[in-house]
Design a protein that fits this description.
about 400 residues, Rossmann fold, 2 domains, six-stranded parallel sheet, 15 helices, 16 strands, globular, Lipid-A-disac_synthase-rel_put
Length: about 400
């Protein structure tokens, strides 16, 4: 049994790699085709990559958010690369014994199209793990969100996406929440299945001790993973952190999740310039606050914090899924723009508090601290919006038992 896994982004690569690991446990062999970047998540998981048709692009995969980024990618050979990747997928899908190959598309319409086209031209069947879309973007279980325009075609999945998903070659669509599965099944007769949320997999804590006292507060800071945007986000979040430290009448520990591609020293120097005392390479103090820069321990950071200050995509959703409230503030992009932040707030509901400027952090905190039921509501909401962990193993099992 052979699997070609097609994904388009670092977060999607991580999700896809976890599913591939579970499939290999069941006797499948997997090869990866990362459409964006060179697939570090697959390499780390020891999954072979079609490296002859992979290439890092200047945009880092955010071309849909910024036309200038798209222009830079085109100049760097995006069109030729896409053609080669499509050719590889089509050739692979037609190889091997019939019925013994399957494409696993993870992400949005781009990998879905990369799976659908070869199937349409005589290639193998495919399944789709839809990580990017949810009906929660424009409605909840009570009805439509009044401030959000009803999407074209009556679903967050546009008619052309639903056309690809309704293909006889599409053997399953795995969605990220139960509401989305119910709507796609009931209203559009699509093969949508909810088997927990892959974004919540791999978040088990390792038991790291950050030295947080029983009455202390821990606050996660998530500036995003892509430079130079993450550095700009970080400066904004530092201002928010200063407001938190002044507002909360306890010792506060800021746990800062630093992505591998970010320069620790650049961030460290910016902290010192704000008047913090450097204790060691990754620890800083000022008055009642301590700040720790974390290269490792992301899961422990999310589990141990009481709330988050975030300007990130997937990491924010994971924090909400663990039942934590988040304060977000729009940035200049290309990812975490005002539009992105508003859509994320709609997706994640009451767990997200979107503000316009750092000074408003105090108002949000005072409101949270005066509401005895808020943390319980956020815990319930996080489970509803983001679902449970365990999807990777469940999806692999479904493929093994229901498709092959």
């Amino acid at each position: 049994m052979e699997i070609l896994c097609i994904s388009n982004g670092h977060g999607e690569d991580l999700i896809a790699a976890r599913i591939c690991i579970e499939l290999e446990k069941l006797g499948f062999s997997a090869i990866a085709l990362p459409l964006v970047g060179v697939g570090h998540a697959y390499t780390k998981a020891n999954i072979p990559i079609a490296d002859q048709v992979t290439q890092a692009m200047p945009s880092g995969g955010f071309v849909r958010m910024d036309s200038r980024q798209l222009a830079r990618d085109v100049k760097s050979g995006l069109v030729g690369l896409t053609s080669k990747q499509l050719g590889f997928a089509w050739k692979w899908s037609r190889g091997g014994r019939r019925g013994k190959r399957l494409i696993l598309a993870v992400g949005d319409i781009v990998p879905l199209l990369f799976a659908w086209l070869p199937a349409k031209l005589g290639g193998c069947d495919f399944v789709f793990v839809a990580t990017a879309k949810s009906e929660y973007f424009w409605r909840d279980r009570q009805g439509y969100l009044p401030h959000v325009k009803k999407p074209f075609g009556g679903s967050n999945f546009f008619p052309w996406e639903r056309t690809l998903m309704s293909s006889s070659h599409c053997k399953a669509v795995f969605v990220r929440d139960l509401l989305t599965a119910e709507i796609l099944n009931k209203e559009f007769k699509l093969p949508a299945i909810y088997l927990a949320n892959s974004m919540m997999d791999g978040l088990e804590p390792k038991g790291i001790d950050f030295g947080i006292g029983e009455n202390d507060w821990a606050v996660a800071i998530l500036p995003g993973s892509r430079s130079p945007e993450a550095y700009e986000n970080w400066m904004t979040l530092m201002l928010c952190a200063q407001v938190v430290a002044r507002t909360i009448p306890h010792d506060v520990h800021f746990l800062v999740a630093i992505a591998p591609d970010l320069d620790l020293e650049i961030i460290g120097q910016s902290i010192i310039q704000k008047g913090w005392l450097r204790i060691d390479e990754t620890t800083f103090k000022v008055q009642n606050a301590r700040l720790i820069l974390l290269r490792e321990g992301f899961s422990d950071c999310l589990h141990q914090c009481h709330l988050g200050l975030a300007m990130a995509g997937t990491a924010t959703e994971q924090l909400v899924g663990l039942g934590k409230p988040v304060i977000t503030i729009a940035g200049n992009g290309p990812q975490f723009t005002r539009k992105f932040a508003e859509e994320q707030a709609d997706l994640l509901g009451c767990s997200v508090n979107l503000i316009d400027k750092p000074a408003q952090v105090a108002d949000v905190l005072n409101s949270i601290l005066q509401d005895p039921d808020y943390f319980q509501e956020v815990s319930r909401n996080g489970l509803e919006r983001m679902g449970q962990a365990g999807a990777s193993a469940s999806i692999a099992k479904y493929i093994a038992e229901k498709i092959y």
